[in-house]
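User: structure tokens for this one?
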Amino acid sequence: VCGIDEAGRGPLAGPVTAAAVILGGRFPDERLDDSKVVHPQTREELAPLIREHSRAWAVGWAWPEEIDRINIHHATLLAMVRAFRGLDVTPGLVLVDGRFALAVGAPCRAEIDGDARIPEIMAASILAKTARDRWMVRYARIDDRYGFESHFGYATRSHRERLRLHGPSPIHRRSFKLC
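Assistant:
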């Protein structure tokens, strides 16, 4: 079974990121859960364990210019398909968090709230979130005007103030209401 989930649908900046994970049996850490309810430090501890204990895993990205061109929904599905295509094995079943199944050449089922119930999707949510957060921190070293290392592109007061002061960066989503 492969679980797929995304991170970064809502931010004003940066990519939307998806991960696909095939666990190699029961995951050995009971802290595995939806990335939204796991403390950031715990997510960082779990991510290498997930990679180590998975039969296969991959991360897929859709970039801000793609989000602006095809919209966030389609960009999310694109990132998910890219993550699936990055796997080196084909699973017998793909479970995708949310309302939409993917056309990926394997049986696929959408699972509403799957990130709260299905370990493979929980693991995918953590890999997607940690990969995206790391990317945003790295980008903040290139362009330190926005504080991406602290808010990861989400619409915080600080981010909106910096956006008004500096205007949009190359990674801001022009199709989103930025200010």
